[in-house]
Structure formats: C-alpha cells, structure tokens
Design a protein that fits this description.
The structure is a single chain. With 285 residues, this protein is mostly helical. The protein is 74% helix and 0% strand. It contains 11 helices and no strands. Helix 4 packs across helix 10. It is globular, with a radius of gyration of 24 Å.
C-alpha cells in the first residue's frame, strides 16, 4: 500500500463529524424507562408527603389497579369497548376528512394566486378563532350523534395540514422549477412530479400535528355535545370525583392517539426515507 493510500484510508470521509453527547448514547428504551420511573417516583413522593389531596391526585398504584380494570372490560367486550369503538370511529373519520379538505385547500393556497390572496386570509382568520367554541354550533347543525364529533375533530385537524401542504409546495428550489419549465412540463406534471415529492416532509409534519389534534377534537365534542364514547365516560367519572378512572381512561385514549400518530410516522418513513428529521440524524419519530 502506498503512502498516499495509507493516509487516505486513515482519514474520515468528511472533515467535520457530528458527535453524540453522553445522554444521546443511552439506548432509547432505557432512557424512556428511566424517565418514566422518575415520573412515577415523583408522583409517589407527592402522595407520601401529602402535598396534594388523593381525591385530586390519586396514588400511582390506585391508577394502575383501575387501568387493569378498564383493560379487562375492554378485552372482555364490555360497555367500555363499545365506547372505545365509538371514539375510534370519530377520530378516524375526522382525520380522513381533515386530510381530504386540508390537502385540497393547501394545494389551492400554495399553487394558485387566488388561494393565496383571497382564501388564505379567511383561513387564517378562522384558525385564530377558538375552535372549541364551535362545538355547540356543530351539535345544533348535526345533532348529538357521532357526526358533530367528527365535524369538530376534522375542523381542528384541518388547519395544520393546510399550512403544511401550502408550505411544502414552495420548498422546491429555482433550479428544479427551471428544469421542469425547460423540459416543457405542464402545471400538473410540475405539481405531482416535483413540488409534492419535494414538499412531503412538510406535509407529513402537518399530518403528525393533525393526528394529535383530531383526538382532542373528538373528546372535546363528547364533553360538550354528549355522546357514548370515552369522552362521555370521562365526564361521568369526573362528576363522581373518580380520578383513578379518569387517569385510566386517558391512558387508553393516549394508546389510540399514539397508534394513529405512529401510523403516520410509519407511512412517512416509507415515503420520505431520505429526509433527516431528527437531531441525531436518524429518521426521527
């Protein structure tokens, strides 16, 4: 091996390398388990020292017992499974409607001058309004059934998708635009073959935000408009000061929310595998 080859083999491929900090080198499952254990430990200490009334903040073991009870009811096909299924349908229907409307409006705003100059100011004005205040209107228009909850969930989840889609369409640089124009690509070809693929990271960011907001919309709709879902069970438990039941129901709702969020992340990793979305350089969430 020549001297030049030996030096080339010893040197890294890049001049600058990113070194992970000590805490970043801890395996993710271990770090998450330690953080969860610390949270439970602080919670137990608050109970032991009597800093908060157990009626307001029950001890962790009481919540754990109630989680087991709710879990048994769900897996045995009890009344909680029916309520869980109703909330699940509200969330899924709301998310699908939000994706359809949000993506369409995002393309309109990001691709046309009419959308940017005329439609966008109205969308911004609506987005600044307290969306929860629309719940009584949706109940009056659509009734106390599942439709009003789906409408509120979709209403809350639509705007992040609109903004993300419109922003994503502007990501493509001038060189790419000039190349497509030189090749004689039509407006639709430029949109579907250049702008949308380039803007996918921004679009998926909006979808992830929407997947979290749609859950809040469905539960808020059940709080304010009745219904038979998990939100109604939480409202009943709150009226009885059954705080362990409230915590356990929230835990199972978070499982539903995480499932939807991770589904979006899974799809993102399949279609946007080339995008760096985490501090550590990996695919992120």
């Amino acid at each position: 091996m020549s001297e030049y080859s030996a030096v080339e083999a010893a040197e890294p491929d890049t001049v600058w390398t990113e070194r992970a900090s000590y805490i970043d080198r801890v395996p993710r499952p271990i770090a998450m388990a330690l953080l969860f254990a610390a949270f439970i430990g602080i919670w137990q200490l608050v109970h032991v020292f009597g800093l908060v009334s157990p009626i307001i903040l029950p001890p962790p073991f009481e919540v754990a017992e109630d989680i087991v009870f709710v879990g048994k009811n769900l897996f045995s096909g009890g009344y909680m499974l029916v309520a869980y299924w109703i909330t699940f349908k509200e969330v899924i229907y709301g998310f699908l409607i939000a994706m359809t409307i949000g993506f369409s409006l995002g393309v309109l705003v990001g691709e046309t001058s009419f959308g940017e100059r005329v439609v966008l100011p109205y969308l911004v004005a609506i987005d600044t309004m307290p969306k929860v205040a629309f719940a009584p209107l949706f109940v009056a228009w659509l009734g106390f059934g599942i439709s009003s909850k789906v409408a509120l969930a979709a209403f809350i989840a639509t705007f992040p998708i609109v903004v993300a889609t419109a922003a994503g369409l502007h990501v493509a640089n001038d060189n790419a635009r000039m190349l497509f124009k030189t090749l004689g690509a039509s407006r639709w070809q430029t949109l579907f073959r250049m702008k949308l693929p380039t803007g996918l990271p921004q679009i998926f960011t909006g979808l992830k935000i929407a997947s979290v907001g749609v859950m809040a919309g469905a539960i808020t709709g059940e709080f304010l408009g009745g219904g038979k879902g998990f939100g109604e069970l939480i409202r009943v438990a709150a009226s009885q000061l059954n705080t362990p039941r409230i915590f356990s129901l929230i835990v199972f709702l978070s499982v539903m929310g995480l499932a939807l969020f991770w589904t979006v992340v899974w799809v993102e990793r399949r279609f946007v595998f080339w995008h760096k979305s985490s501090v550590a350089g990996g695919p992120g969430l």
